[in-house]
Amino acid sequence: MASSVSAIAERDLPARYKGLGRRRFNSFLGTGLALFCALVAAASLLAILGYVVRQGVGAINWEFLTDVPHPIGVPGGGVGNGIVGSLIIIGIATLMALPVGLLTGIYLALFGRGVLPESLRFLSDVLSGVPSIAIGLFAYALLVAPFKHFSAFSASFAFMMLMLPLLVRTSEQAIRTVPQTVREGALALGMSNFRATIQIVLPTALPAIVTALLLAIARVTGETAPLLFTAFGSQFWETNPGNPMAELSLQVFTYAISPYPSWQAQAWGGALLLIVAVFVLSLGARLMLARAMRGLSE
Amino acid sequence: MENAQPGGAPQFRRVARFVSPTDRGFAAIVYAGSALFALLILGLFIELLLGSWPSIAKFGPAFIWHSAWNPIANQFGALPMIYGTVVTSLIAIILAAFIGILAAVYLADFAPRWLAAPLSFLIELLAAVPSVVYGLWGLFVLAPFVRTSIGPALQSVLGWTPLFSGPIYGVGLLTGGLILALMIVPTVTAISRDVVAAIPRDLREASMALGSTKWETAMRVVLPAARVGVFGACVLALGRALGETIAVTMVIGNRPEISASLFAPSYTLASVIANEFTEATTDIYISALIQLGLILFFVSVVVNALARVMIWSVRGSERTL
Amino acid sequence: MTAVAAPAEILATDDLSAYYGEHKAVGDVSIQFRRKAVTALIGPSGCGKTTLLRCLNRIHEVLFDARVTGRVLLDGHDIYATDMDPMRVRRRIGMVFQRPNPFPTLSILDNVLACGRHGLTREQKLQVAERALRAAALWDEVKDKLKTSPLRLSGGQQQRLCIARAIAAEPEVLLMDEPTASLDPIATAVIEELMCSLAKEFTIVAVTHNMQQAARVSDVTAFMLADETRIGRLIEVDDTSKLFTKPRDPRTEDYITGRFG
Fold first, then answer.
1. Which of A37, A110, A137 minimises the CB distance to B102?
2. Which residues of B touch A193 (CB under 8 A)?
3. The dihedral of CA B221, B225, B231, B232: what is its sign?
4. Tens digit of pLDDT for each residue in B20-70?
5. Touching A: which chains, 3+ CB pairs < 8 A?
6. CATH entry, B63-315, from 1.10.3720.10, 3.30.450.20, 3.30.70.20, 3.30.1490.190
């Protein structure tokens, strides 16, 4: 029906209006292409996810989660030491990054104008774009080469560098979004800047800062490159940050490029663990962000 | 009296924001934290420069255009890695820009709400997938697929060009580019979608009121208006592709050679560091590898500064990535 | 306290000018504020009345690039003197803002006690809070939900909470920056009533752009106007009844008769 009506209209239209049918058709094609692109992007995630789950689920069992790697030819073994290593390395990185990032964020939010803060912002943005492998080289040059000894701590240092830009800029913004009137309200009561910041401003900004922290942790959880020449990896239960240490994503990498099918199978299991960890962190960040938004709108 | 003198510059009363001992201590700690942060970044640059100094001193600028990478003979030239990095990143950005921008336009202007939210969510999760997982998938799924399907198909149509000639290994420039494309699509999509969504509605309505279709409006009015920000998104994504390490290392083939064919194995700046650094024995070898890192550092600084200036110019400096 | 100024005046400015960067927003204002009276600052938007108010407790200088010249005397002492601690000044001169700004993460009770009454027992703190909330005519409405978030309160209640928070610090002067600007007429009436009753205990300086409000609540009214270079000037100060009936300056007359502004 509709098409016949438009066909009549088309014939009766003045010449300058003609070609609408063709334009409609092109638009229809274009929209379809755009939808297709969006679907391709989303579907590739599902493809990767599906494959990792299918390959990885079989590898995961209690021994896989709790045991150390076995030598080639000895069946079984797991990535327990890698999981613990990840927790230690990321934990130390977080403990170092949080104070530095938060203090710099506070500095930028409170003293935000002028040449110095602007250049610090620029440096921070530059750092966020520096490839993680270059940051790994820095950690190596600073903390491995002088001691001629790989260490988990040097990996934590590299991770801290990777976490900092996100923490700095997000905590600055979070503190800035706390309305100026709230801060002035605190100062007008005779509070010191210190108390106003710690007691009033930071708690208000907390959900957004936690969001940034979760995202930063998620980012380094999936990071492998700087570990190659800092944490180095280990076959044993190693908990001393001064020594080389196993790390989950590093184990996945090592197993994946190994020629042994049993190790490759374990790589899929490790990949699944990594994906689960990263997704849980991202989801947590998303929920936290929703809460931050709600807190401000009320 | 500290009052303003008529005609003279006013004498301002001293303003002390941080007077109490607690506040002074607080300010000192805040300054110290920020100074440490600045120091870390400067330290990064200085350490890379110091580390690569022996190599810079020995090879000079020729390091960049020498194509021999032979550690045993102590010959080091970065050209094959630069070539591999550029080619894989170009493949990635061309594909990712096409898919990402169209997906962004769809999400911002066309998608119904019930579809836009979950699609955006999936695409943003794609950005969170660890690099090593992309690499694993690339090595065991994508590379065989390139060898058996994509490669032969391309060769049968375009095999007459040097780009698609020669044996297909599966791992190589094309596979590296494809996996990179997958990794940077979320960056392009997410930022472009924000930029496109920030284009004022009156612009769209003005175009629609002239009788344009929604698609024509998106292509002729909205995208041109958003072009600076969208371009910035692509440059930022390019920066990521240039520095990406692990996934590429797993599918690039790791051979320091320049070859016209996209099916040939190659090497990138980042992956040669990843592969050879812990095995490097001589000081000059280590130094040459660190110099590759320094090149990577410079490229990323330039590319990111460019991208951020562009994105800021349209969106303000609100969002960080 | 050595009384240099006349005892009737607790707060005074002497040739006070306020700047934002290079821009002079308030120029050469000398004014005295009478003890335990309500002084209203009126004038059209942009005449510098809020800036002047913000100079009186040194909250002006919190903003980037904000500066002052001249003196502000509290009981005869210059609050901008180098040995003056701005925090102590603000403790003695409380402030209520244009929009209610309760601290979002603190409970209602903690908001009232936020001025930090240290060294009090729990009982005493509760007493302080109750007294402040009663004085702000809010006690009956919140006494059962002292531990809840202030964000659930209505705008008028939030503003009264902010008043309670300010007076819990037992200041000598209370500055109010258009305290009813964001409130509906009923909440406004409650706050106005409150201002009259608080004047028995505190010296109040209130900015308002609403002349009727100034006439209703204030004892003294000061009229400000921006000159052609956008510098806010004090035009006239007088008892409210006189200023509104027999203004001395033709510009004041123009304003109160509605000829501009």
1. A37
2. 17-18, 23, 26-27
3. negative
4. 778 888 989 999 999 999 999 999 999 999 999 999 999 988 898 888 898
5. B, C
6. 1.10.3720.10
